[in-house]
Amino acid sequence: MSHVQTRAFPEGEEWVLRGVKTGVLHGESADCFLISARIAGEVEDEGGISLFLVPATAPGVMVRGVPAIDGGRSAEVRLKDVRIPGEALVGEHGGGIATIEHAIGAGVLGLCAEALGAMEEAKAATLAYLRTRKQFGQPLGTFQALQHRMATLLLEVEQARSSVINAASALAADRVRRERALSAARGRTQAIQRIARSHAGTSAMKEMANSPLSGIKVLDLSRVLAGPLVGTLLAYARWGMPFSDQMHQVAEVGLPVHSMQKVTI
Question: CA 265 to CA 157: how far, in whole Å?
Fold first, then answer.
């Protein structure tokens, strides 16, 4: 996160930005960009990074769209001596990395809560499948090995729920506690990938109506700054949005979080 090559230089009451941002999801459709730029220090330094709100129509902003591997659209955004007013600075001067970490933490939590909701739905679908699908004249659920697997799955779902609730509670805590809790939640919600094995693979799950595993391959955290999460980042930077309370409620009931980028995809 701290690897930032784009530079911002103060000139009078304005900022001048120079650099390139790649892999900007849906960048062609954006009205503005939230740009991380270095105002001091070397490329890998955590300090010296600020955030700027840059209109897509500002002189010097060049957007080149490219197709993404998942069928979506991505973009390369070039900033060539882009001039923006001083009030375009978002958050604390030079404190951008902390804002980014908070926003990414909120995104990770949202993805984990969505995965937990998908796990609950997949668990119910799996139980129904094992009770109705027959092999050798018997329901699959009568086989001891699959019973053991389902018992393990039930424990994993409850562990995932606890870890997501814990992560929601730690979102506003200090950096170390927050990152540890989020890491635990990420690890526990990966169990969703193992549910498909009771259905002879993910392809069988995709055929189910409203399947929670439809299109899900991995918990892809590379997308957490896409779409509505930019608004969350701005809220943290400017208004201190109480996001943890909302996510705690979501985690308690294990509902998908449709306001975030999908689990993926």
Answer: 21
